[in-house]
Amino acid sequence: MTGFAENRSIATVALVVANYDEAISWYVDRLGFVIAEDVDLGGGKRWVTITPGNGQGARLLLAEASGDAQGGVVGNQTGGRVFLFLETDNFARDHALMLEKDVEFREAPRHEAYGTVAVFADLYGNLWDLIEPKC
User: 0.70 exceeded by the pTM?
Assistant: First the structure.
């Protein structure tokens, strides 16, 4: 035992975006996410969290870039590596729906030891994996 509480989880991940509303629209319309919270914090800032339609997993905090340093990382928070992983219970269904909604996949689906996966880009170019893990 390390002394830390046993019931901990990563609940929210911040994603720097260029604009709250365009990011909300893209994630809701193209990936089927839902808005969990949209709270005006004043001064042009908002607390906007989104989740997959089922509300499972970590929430994304859409954090609108403020200043040149933050604006410079929009779309490249991880230096071009896959950043986020969207798990599904039906890869073929979700892949087809995402293609219909003009989500840009950077590769064809592939089968790996850990599951079926394909890399896609969000509206800013951040890389994601759509993945159906092996049971």
Answer: yes
